[in-house]
Amino acid sequence: MLGLLFAFFLCVISQVIQPMQSYASLPDEVQVFAGRKTDVRLAVPAASSAVVDRPDIVGLDHSSGLKVSGQQPLHLHPQQTGHAKLTLKLWGKIPVKTVNVKVIPDLRVVPGGQTIGVKVKSAGILVVGHHLVHSSPDEQKSPGEAAGIKLGDLITHMNGHKLDGVSGVSEAVELAGKSNQSIDVVLKRGNETIKTKLTPAYDSEDKAWRLGLYIRDSAAGVGTLTFYAPDQGVYGALGHVITDMNTQTSIVVGSGQIVQSNVTSISKSETGDPGEKRAHFLKESKILGNIERNTAFGIFGKMSQNPDHSLYSQGIPVAFSHEIKEGKAEILTVVEGQQVERYSVDIVHVANQSEPATKGLVLRITDPKLIDKTGGIVQGMSGSPIVQDGKLIGAVTHVFVNDPKSGYGCFIEWMLQDAGVMMKKEQEKNLKAG
Question: Is the CB of residue 394 less than 8 Å from the CB of residue 360?
């Protein structure tokens, strides 16, 4: 009898704990677009139901008491912008989870795929190394290192003057050296602003005054345009941050441009070698847009029109992460010249992200034509838009070095937030507080 009672007790507990764990894993908020039916997959027990408090904002397939299954999606019918509460009930009676449903205006953007040339100038001069100054046959030193300046630091001011590039540095160094004075330096190290004094040293071999620093103020490369938002006049590209190749620190943008680029050849991906697109900026390349921000999700700026060679003349819907499913999709990219083409891929994993993170999904190239041409994902393909069921869902970001047919992608919603097309949660909070 005790054994039977214990087994019965375990069955009852499992029927309660497992549903509770399923409910706890659900998001607290879901975003959907007004006027666009949305399927939301909820991993909840079959003995559940759902109701909404504002059916005028979000409707369900039935007005109330809708049964929810972990195998079948919940069909939401957003009617107008606003907020509604979706309550999930265990056995149709016990409220155990409330999901805030935010309905935002419908949004459409034009997928890219064009190869672009990227030219960016940092908001100051970036320290990429130290070197020793031969001040005498017996003395070698780096004044910059002695002043506490580190690799990755961004020098923004010298003697109160803002630096726009390396051109003004040599003059300031020579003047300070000849007058036997130090230079007041302001630099940024991450989010920290630091002040220090830097005394130049005379290099007896070069016959010049030196700081003992290797510096750089610009970078250039090739990537892929992800989207153009015509209503806002902005674009997004690359899907990942631009970093300095020596220090691996992100470049703080002072100014920059994206221009037309032409793919000349492909170095194929192989295990251990990610390969690359070889491209050049066209002579008198048309400027497509400026560069205003460099974030974890790419570069963003203003663009006045849809660039040439686009496969779309109008915008298409975008999808939130909860709408993406494992299965077939396609990417848009260029492997020769400037012609954008479609290539088939499989989405093999979709991460559950409630906050911005770069590795949102895993994709695998399945298109024989692309595999034959590139071997898989290559450098320069970053930013290639991913389209599933007629919706833009994300961008290619990284290749798996040991499996170049596979790689990571980021969700398009995070790129749209950084582009200013969609509002971030912090902005919403500040707006409500104001």
Answer: yes
Catalytic residue among 106, 164, 346, 367: 367
Using alpha carbons, select from 356, 353, 237 the residue that is nearest to residue 298: 237
Q: Which of 22, 217, 240, 244 is catalytic?
A: 240
What's the CA angle centered on 190, arms 184 and 193, to 5 degrees? 30
Q: Tell me the mean pLDDT in the region 161-186.
A: 89
Pairwise CA distance, residues 135 & 207, whole Å: 10
Read off the pLDDT band of 373 (50, 70, 90): very high
Closest alpha carbon to 361 in 390, 320, 401: 320
Catalytic residue check, 231: no
* Cα–Cα–Cα angle for 292, 307, 276, rounded to 5 degrees: 75
At residue 340, does pLDDT exceed 90? Answer: yes
Mean pLDDT, to the nearest integer, of 405-415? 97
Banded pLDDT at 376 (limits 50, 70, 90) = very high
Instruction: Decide: helix, strand or coil at residue 268.
Output: coil
- Alpha carbon distances (Å) from 152 to 185, 189, 217: 15, 7, 12
**CA torsion, ordered 385, 389, 390, 396, to nearest 10 deg:** 0
pLDDT exceeds cutoff 90 at 424: no
Q: Please answer whether residues 89 and 95 qualify as being in contact, where contact means their C-beta atoms are separated by less than 8 angstroms.
A: yes
- Calculate mean pLDDT across residues 179-186: 93
Element of type H or E holding 40: strand 38-40
Cβ contact 291:116 at 8 Å: no
**Comparing C-alpha atoms, which of 237, 261, 294 is closest to residue 110?**
237
Active site residue 206: no
C-alpha distances out from residue 356 to 17, 93, 411, 417, Å:
30, 35, 9, 9
Provide the percentage of residues in the chain whose pLDDT is more than 90.
60
What would the two tokens of residue 205 be?
């071999």
- Reduced to 3 states, what is the DSSP secondary structure of residue 420? coil
> Quick check: 340 and 262 in contact, CB under 8 A?
no
Catalytic residue among 142, 382, 384, 406: 382
Instruction: Judge whether 240 counts as a catalytic residue.
Output: yes
- The more confidently predicted of residues 117 and 94 is 117
pTM of the model: 0.84
The mean pLDDT value for 378-391 works out to: 96
